[in-house]
Specification:
There is one protein chain. The chain is α/β, with parallel strands linked by helices and 218 residues long. Helices cover 39% and strands 15% of the residues. Helix 2 packs across helix 3, helix 4 crosses helix 5 and helix 6 packs across helix 7.
Length: 218
């Protein structure tokens, strides 16, 4: 038996400001740091052999805080851009509500929650899947088969393809799946097979999900 924890980073400064972030390397907000500490407390008692994260500081800092809170700051960490958020192209840094006013809510919804639609000069969720799923299959899954416990701190759109792979989701369900900030998704494995899934409650968690295009949290 082995355990995989998938964790979306805490609230970033641009999450707070309702901006498209993508590969822009913005830090956690103060709330994001607090929620990462709360997440670490909720995971105490678990032991990890390996950790993986993206090349972006919001995911890295979340992982650092969570592992420190658990007393596991010495866990080996692998960093790879395959786990980066999707690249939002020309939308990066722009306010979601302002883009909805300019281009219409339906167009912005397509850019954000369509499986195959790319934002201008950016990646679709399908594009993200092409780099994220092979990385998971080749580097993370073999550790789980070897009965190693693994934690992954990543991003909503790099976690969606992994959820698709593990939960056998279709494209539309994958694209519209809401992924909570600092909310641990815990999978138990026997070999390469998932035998149990838990979404763990984090007491004191404030920023529990993404914001819609108007900046209202879900």
């Amino acid at each position: 038996m082995s355990v995989l924890v998938l964790l979306r980073h805490g609230q970033s400064q641009w999450n707070l400001e309702n901006r498209f972030t993508g590969w822009t390397d913005v830090p956690l907000s103060a709330q994001g740091e607090k929620d990462a500490h709360a997440c670490g407390r909720a995971l105490k008692g678990m032991m990890f052999d390996s950790a993986f994260t993206s090349r972006l500081k919001r995911a890295q800092d979340t992982l650092t805080i969570v592992l420190a809170e658990m007393g596991q700051g010495g866990t080996p960490v692998e960093y790879d851009s395959a786990l980066n958020e999707r690249h939002y192209g020309d939308l990066q840094g722009l306010n979601k509500a302002e883009m909805a006013a300019k281009y219409g809510e339906e167009q912005v919804k397509l850019w954000r929650r369509s499986y195959a639609t790319r934002p201008p000069n950016g990646e679709s969720i399908e594009d993200c899947e092409r780099r994220t799923t092979p990385f998971f299959v080749h580097y993370i899954l073999p550790l789980l088969v070897q009965k190693k416990n693994v934690i992954v701190s990543a991003h909503g759109n790099s976690m969606r393809p992994i959820f698709k792979y593990l939960d056998h989701l279709d494209n539309d369900t994958t694209a519209t799946l809401e992924v909570g900030l600092c909310l641990p998704y815990i999978y138990s494995f026997e070999g390469d097979r998932v035998v149990h899934k838990e979404v763990r409650t984090v007491p004191g968690l404030v920023a529990t999900g993404t914001a819609d295009i108007h900046g209202q949290g879900k």
